[in-house]
Amino acid sequence: MAKYFDVHPQTPQARTIGTVADSLRSGALIAYPTDSCYALGCSMGNREGLDRIRAVRRLDDRHHFTLMCENFAQLGQFVQLDNAVFRAVKAATPGGYTFILPATKEVPRRLLHPKKKTVGVRIPDHAVTRALLAELGEPLVSSTLLLPGEAEPMTQGWEIKERLDHVLDAVVDSGECGTEPTTVVDFSGGTAEIVRRGAGDPARFE
Questions:
Q1: Which pLDDT band, with edges at 50, 70 and 90, does 153 fall under?
Q2: Are 173 and 158 spatial neighbours (Cβ–Cβ below 8 Å)?
């Protein structure tokens, strides 16, 4: 049964955030809000958590997982950026974008695209997510909470708790956060390729 945490969307309670971070360090799989929609998340070292995300969403090994990063300094530890890409990504963060980039050696192999050796990264513009990442001290491995066969992600924490109670360890609810996933921009080839149009304005990368 998943624990349920009701968190204020602008001023998240530090004690609750600390409890959620501790559960992630102990191997939990959580559902949590972002600035685009709810996501599934686990710690980087949680191999079983990754398998559980794949099972919930029925993903194959070509799926790009996202490292949800607290800030640009942290993001830069895990992906390779030349000067032009650095400027483009920095100008668009924090916000509703996910960037696919070549990974550094800091990223566990199981998180990489098997052929491209790339990983998704993003910096969310959401107080609860940022507080959780700051407390955790490392990126969250994440995937949009979009269930198989459904057109849109779930938007209500109570509904996530009700439907996924048996497969999650915790649900962090800070109210509705929308149904539009991030805009995904692939920079792995050196230039911007828009893979998915979503919450972030794609015009700046066209």
A1: confident
A2: yes
